[in-house]
Amino acid sequence: MSLLNRIQKGGGSGGGQGGDEPPQKGGDEDRFSRNRNTPVMQRGQPGTDKSYSDLKGRVQSRLMNELDQSIDTSRKAEIRTHIEELFNSILAEESMVLARAERQRLFESIVADILGFGPLEPLLADETITEIMVNGPKNVFIERAGNIFRANVSFEDEDHVMRILDRIVAPLGRRVDESSPLVDARLPDGSRVNAVIRPISLVGPTITIRKFFKRPLTVEDLISKGSVTKEITDFLRSCIIARLNLIVSGGTGSGKTTLLNILSGFIPDDERIVTIENAAELQLRQEHVVTLESRPPNIEGKGQITIQDLVVNSLRMRPDRIVVGECRGGEALDMLQAMNTGHDGSLTTLHSNSPRDTIARLEVMCLMAGMDLPVRAIREQIASAVDLICHQERMRDGSRKVVKVTEVQGMEGDMITMSDIFEFEQTGVEGGKIIGRIRPTGIRPRFIDRIEASGIYLPPSVFGIGKGY
Questions:
Q1: Angle of the 355-367 helix axis to the 375-385 helix axis, nearest 10
Q2: By C-alpha distance, which of 50, 68, 69, 67 is closest to 11?
Q3: H helix intervals, 302-374
Q4: How many domains does the chain have?
Q5: Which tens digits make up the pLDDT trace of 351-366?
Q6: First vs last Cα of the chain: how many Å apart?
Q7: How far apart are the C-alpha atoms of 190 and 373, rounded to whole Å?
Q8: Are 33 and 141 within one domain?
Q9: Is 80 exceeded by the pLDDT of residue 223?
C-alpha cells in the first residue's frame, strides 16, 4: 500500500463557497488568524464563517481524491509540482480568494501533511530547536537554548497526530497501536523519537523528538559553548586512542549521546567498530562501522531482539571497539565482560546523577541480567573493566556541561575507589546564567602509563600541575 493510501482524508463541510469578489485593500493579511482554531472570515460574504482547518480539510480531501494513488511518493519534487497544479485548480474552481501569504501557508501545510510530518515540518527545519514535545493534538512545546516554550503550531485532532506518527514508524518496520502503545523510532536524519498513545497516555498521542543537528557538533563547538575545556578534550582523545574503557553518564537531556558521538570520532580509522542502539542515532564517520539496532516483538509477541542479544552477538563479529548507545538493563553485564575480554576502548552511556551513582547503577543492572552473582564479584568486574566516567549535567540555565571526569582506580576491600581528574566549580549566577569553570584537580590518573605507551605525552599542566590550581 502506498503512503498516499495510508493517509486518512481530511474533511470539512458546511457553509457556502467563498466569494469571488476581489479582496478589500488592506484586509488581506489579517483574513486568517495565525491560530488555526480561529474562524476564517471571507469578507463581504455574511454567513460564510469557516475555520482554517475546515478549509484545509476540504482542499486536502479533493486533492487526495484527484491524486493518482499509484504515484511514487519517493519522487517528492514531482509530486509537489503535481500537488501545486491541483491545488491552484481547486481554488480556482471553488472561487476561493486568499491572500498570497495565506495561500502559500495553506499549500505548504497540505504538502507537509501529504509528503512530510505535517505541523512538525517547520519545527524540524528550525535548527535552533533542539527538542519537540507533542502533548496531544493542541499542545506542542519546543526546547530552544535549553528553555521550553509553547510552539505556534497544532494538529487538527488525535487522528491527525496518529497519521503523522504512523508515517514516522512505518518505514522502520515498527508499529504503534493499542496493543503496543509505546515505541522508540528515529527520523531519516537520525533524530530520536519516542511516542506514547492511549490508553497509556491520557492526554492523547504524545511524541518526543530529540533533534540532531544537521551539521554534527564538533569538539570546537563544545569548547565554544563552555561544555568542556581544551584540556579535557585533549585528555579524552588520549584515553580513546589508548583504548581505555569509558562511560558517559548523566541525566536525561544532558547531552550524553552528543558527547559519545564526538568521542567516537577519536577512534582510529583502521579499527572495526560495532555500534549497538535501540534506535540508531550515532553518526560515526569512520569507514569500518557496523550499526546494529534492537527490534521490538511483532504483533504475535515474537521476534524481539534486545540490546543484550546484540552485545552477545557482537562478540562474534570481530570488533575492535563496541559502542553501546545506552545501557539500561542486563546488557550491562555482557558489556563489562566484553570490556574485560579483549575489547578495550569500548564506550557506552548510562543514566545517573553522579559518577558514584554510575557505579551503583551498573551493579543493579548487572543483577538484572538474572545471574546469581555476589555483589563483590560484580564490583570486581566493574573495577577491572571501567577506566573512566565522564559525567554531564544539564544546568538550571539550560546549558550542558561536563561536571566531572572521574577515574575508576580499583578495589579497596569491598569498595570501588574513584578519583576526580576534572570537575566543574560554580562561582556564581549572573543574569540567570551559571558562572563557573571546569578545572583540573591536580591529580594525575593511574593509567597515565597506558596513555604514554600509546605514544601520547600529556604535559602536567593538563592536570593542573604547576599552574597554581
A1: 130
A2: 50
A3: 307-314, 331-339, 355-367
A4: 3
A5: 999 999 999 999 999 9
A6: 66
A7: 38
A8: no
A9: yes
